[in-house]
Specification:
There is one protein chain. With 674 residues, the protein is an alpha+beta fold. It has 3 domains: 161 residues, no CATH class; 219 residues, no CATH class; 217 residues, Restriction Endonuclease. It contains 31 helices and 14 strands. Helix 12 packs antiparallel against helix 13, helix 17 runs antiparallel to helix 20 and helix 22 runs antiparallel to helix 29.
Length: 674
């Protein structure tokens, strides 16, 4: 992607995409876009309007807003898929994007087998490594590889404050030399050793490139002094020295603020102070002079003396035009980069490699990543034709190629690296390594549950699901805030139900292997994994049995059509596959449709055929629970064995008529009264 200006920060995606669950929403948008583009080669405003209308009709991703009818949303929605190379600039689906949504990505190569990639994490890792940041002008072909730099920083320092890592990555310009970037990496050690502040380190490496170096500040300070001297700037001058793309009104607001700042500095009157504080609260001023934060410490009705005392270290009150203009330039850049901070975190989390916790970022598998970085022949910067890379649909940017091709690693180097990694993990084969990594992920997931999803917290989140009705209602927002913004409500529900059952079990079951989900590096869900498995499949050892749990947020009116067949099919397939080990099926929803629960009961006496093999089973045991009933089981400390024993002990020996009240006595034996 090209930088908008020579000083712009960049993002891997676009803030206009109003969902953070990229791993689930992109695969919904892209097939609809792919079908549309088969008959619409252009991507102008009429096509954007038409596509957006089709998307709204064929998906439930977004709620329509009146100001979306001009098609702007149709264009900007796909920006988020264009920047990482899933779609081209003309909005044709690239090969990687197409293979991803079709669950047909090129098989993992020798290096990729060192990780437990899922389709989504593999696709995002490959694509982010291919992202290049090109110069802002239309002819420049110099570029920078941001994800490669970021991985190197984390491999060297282990853990970094989120702001330090991303602000540094976003500040590097394609014009930097390889040595300058190596210096950026190595000099951060001064910050780690407390020999330099991050701001000093940042200014040292980026002030000149981002145009807040000494020469730029000196020139701007002269113009600011003119304002202080009563010589007001024209809009053309403001556009040059105090730029704001929103228009002359906003640029004039800068001048108004500076005039009032100088007036207060001169007269220290209460009236001037109140006007200054009022102006300072405007977003234009906060964003540009404070980097998005308040520029003064100022409580209501503060006196002049207290205000000056509370802000004694504030450059704005010094009257020093150089310091004030520096604050303006740095503040504007801080605000711009802050707009992309969390967005970049979301894209990085999709790789499953980069962990974000408590404001710090780190690599999940540092030894493996570090070994791979040592053998790649890629440089941080390069010089290659922009058009051939980003305008050519057949370029590597859009092609489904593996990490070894992307990183320019040959088979000999890859095999040597694998041996090194196996020795470091004290294993003898890739299979053993994968077992170690699975244990690692299981441990991380159980640690996450202990720290964030104890029994009481799980109950509260399930209560939110009882209140949830639609996308983005208050309960839906509260759920995503409590769990993760990177996944949809239904996927989070699956995750939380599995955790609930894990608590009912006494935390003995392997919950990682049970969940058919894709996870980020922090073991939070990003999407439901492709394939024919059920939602949750627990394996019991004593006594041996399999438990399949299917979940849905569908209302009772839609359950028979949307969910009844899948749970019957998945339970049948698992029962046939596991025979002679018994299989139990449980269905969990907000509310249970009576017809659905009655049909489930009848399945105990129905011969059913597997859709995956030639086998069949003489009936399956299915039982339905509502969220309220699941919560009651948690609150009453009922064990999973009690639930399973009660459901099995109440199976009739022979077919009987199924009445609407058949569940009540069974629930009563579990301690639930209806």
């Amino acid at each position: 992607m090209r930088l908008e200006t020579s000083t712009s920060p960049f993002s891997f995606g676009d803030t206009s995409f109003r969902r953070a669950d990229f791993s689930e929403s992109f695969p919904i948008v892209m097939p609809i876009l792919n079908e549309y583009k088969k008959t619409h080669a252009k991507w102008n405003r009429p096509e954007q309007i038409e596509f957006y209308a089709i998307l709204m009709d064929k998906s439930e991703l977004f709620s329509r807003e009146e100001n979306d009818i001009d098609g702007k949303r149709g264009r900007t929605l796909t920006n988020s898929m264009m920047k990482p190379g899933f779609v081209t600039k003309d909005r044709f689906i690239g090969e990687t994007g197409l293979h991803w949504v079709e669950n047909n990505l090129v098989d993992a190569d020798t290096i990729e087998q060192l990780f437990l990639f899922t389709p989504s994490t593999l696709a995002f890792t490959r694509q982010l490594l291919k992202v290049r940041i090109y110069e802002a002008d239309n002819t420049g072909n110099k570029f920078f590889r941001p994800f490669l730099f970021l991985l190197n920083m984390l491999a060297k320092y282990g853990e970094m404050p989120k702001g330090h890592l991303l602000y540094t990555t976003m500040a590097i310009r394609p014009s930097f030399t390889e040595k300058e970037i190596r210096d950026v990496i190595n000099d951060y050690q001064q910050v780690v050793d407390n020999k330099a502040t991050f701001d000093d380190y940042f200014d040292q490496h980026f002030a000149t490139a981002l145009q807040f170096g000494p020469a730029v500040i000196e020139n701007g300070a002269k113009q600011l002094q003119r304002i202080f001297n009563g010589d007001l700037l024209t809009d053309e001058e403001l556009k040059r020295y105090f730029p704001n793309n929103n228009g002359p009104v906003y640029r004039e607001r800068y001048q108004e603020f500076l005039i009032e700042l100088n007036r207060f500095k001169t007269n220290h009157s209460q009236e001037s102070l109140e006007t200054l504080i009022e102006l300072s609260k405007k977003n234009t001023i906060k964003n540009s002079f404070g980097g998005g934060a308040a520029v003064f410490k100022a409580r209501a009705n503060v006196s002049v003396a207290d205000f000056i005392s509370n802000n004694s270290d504030n450059p704005l009150l010094t009257g020093n035009s150089y310091a004030i203009y520096h604050m303006f330039q740095v503040g504007k850049y801080k605000y711009l980069r802050s707009q992309y901070l969390d967005l970049n975190v979301r894209y990085l989390s999709m790789t499953g490699l980069v962990s974000t916790k408590n404001g710090y970022m780190s690599l999940d598998l540092t030894p493996i990543v570090n070994n791979i970085l040592h053998i790649t022949q890629l440089t941080f910067v390069g010089d290659e034709n922009y058009g051939q890379y980003e305008d050519n649909p057949n370029s590597p940017f859009y092609s489904d190629i593996t990490l070894m091709s992307i990183l320019n690693i040959d088979e000999v180097a890859a095999k040597k690296t694998i041996q090194t990694v196996l020795q470091q993990y004290d294993v003898f084969s890739i299979e053993e390594l994968r077992d170690v990594l699975e244990h690692h992920k299981t441990d991380k997931l159980t640690e996450l549950i202990e720290s964030r999803f104890d029994r009481e917290r799980t109950i509260k989140i399930l209560e939110l699901f009882k209140k949830r009705r639609t996308l983005n209602d208050s309960a839906d927002k509260a759920i995503r805030k409590a769990v993760t913004e990177s996944s949809s409500g239904p996927t989070i529900f699956e995750f939380i139900v599995a955790i609930a059952w894990y608590h009912l079990n006494g935390k003995q079951l392997n919950i990682f292997n049970a969940l058919n989900l894709e996870f980020d590096a922090d073991m939070l869900p990003i999407s439901h994994a492709p394939g024919g498995r059920g939602d949750i499949e627990f394996t019991y050892d004593n006594p041996k049995m399999n438990l399949l749990i299917e979940v849905t947020l569908m209302n009772p009116n839609n359950q028979k059509r949307g969910e009844m067949e899948p749970i019957i099919r998945h339970t049948t397939n698992l029962a046939v596959e596991a025979d002679p080990v018994p299989t139990q099926g449980i269905f969990i929803a907000n509310e249970i449709d009576t017809n659905v629960e009655n049909v489930f009961r009848a399945m105990a006496f129905t011969e059913l055929n597997s859709t995956e093999t030639s086998g069949s089973v003489q009936g399956i045991n299915l039982f339905a629970l509502s969220i309220s009933e699941l919560n009651a089981l948690l609150e009453n400390n009922v064990s999973d064995q009690t639930i399973l024993n009660v459901t099995n002990n109440n199976l009739p020996d022979s077919p009987v008529s199924i009445s609407n009240e058949w569940r009540k006595p069974i629930l009563a034996q579990m301690g639930i009264s209806n």
